[in-house]
Write a structure and sequence with these properties.
Strand content: 25-35%
Number of helices: 5
Bound molecules: adenosine-5'-diphosphate, magnesium ion
Number of strands: 7
CATH class: Alpha Beta
Radius of gyration: 14 Å
Structural class: alpha/beta
Shape: globular
Strand order of the largest sheet: 1-7-6-2-5-4-3
CATH architecture: 3-Layer(aba) Sandwich
Largest sheet: 7 strands, mixed
Distance between the termini: 15 Å
CATH superfamily: P-loop containing nucleotide triphosphate hydrolases
Order of helices and strands: EHEHEEHHEEEH
Number of domains: 1
Length: 158
């Protein structure tokens, strides 16, 4: 499976990655985020929400598990499954989100890996010291593979 890299020097550059990706999003987009605490999963989620035209404040959904927002064209479903047991996750009916009308972003997605759809874009975020962050994007299936190739041609990913 090919993967792609993006280095953000600061939060603004994290926002540029989010914007580049969000321009391609459609109904049923699934983003699976992982990375240590403080890596920037929520910050990246906030940038995605902003790019989708969400005007509400997007907070970390650690305690609420799932929050739904209205974007300009697409709803945005923001999840944090860190505190969820496998059974609880099962009961949430995640497929209704994954195969729904909106864009779903899951923080700590690898914890519920078996519940994720086979087609998705996995994003692993690593702290690079200071404000720099390294994003590793691994697309599984379409349209995600196509998107990554396109963004590589555009020079956003490498
Ligand atoms: N380039 C960057 N990308 C993302 N977050 C950054 C960046 N530079 C600094 N930060 C800061 O790092 C912190 C990341 O925290 P958060 O997004 O809550 O992490 P996580 O959700 O992965 O635990 C935030 O305070 C954010 O402002
Ligand atoms: Mg978070």
């Amino acid at each position: 499976m090919s993967s792609y890299e993006y280095i953000a020097a600061d939060l603004t550059e994290t926002g540029k990655l989010a914007a580049g990706l969000a321009s391609l999003f459609g109904p049923g987009t699934v983003l699976a985020l992982d990375g240590d605490l403080g890596a920037g999963k929520t910050a990246f989620s906030q940038a995605v929400a902003r790019s989708l035209g969400v005007s509400d404040v997007v907070n970390s959904p650690t305690f609420t598990i799932i929050k739904e927002y209205e974007g300009a064209e697409l709803p945005f479903y923001h999840m944090d499954v860190y505190r969820l047991s496998a059974d609880e996750a099962d009961e949430l009916g995640l497929d209704d989100y994954f195969y729904g009308e909106g864009v779903t972003l899951i923080e700590w997605a690898s914890l519920v890996e078996e519940l994720l759809p086979p087609e998705r874009l996995s994003v692993y975020i690593e702290h690079g010291g200071g404000d720099s962050r390294r994003f590793r994007l691994t697309p599984a299936g379409e349209p995600y593979s196509q998107w990554c190739m396109q963004l590589k041609e555009n020079g956003l990913l490498r």
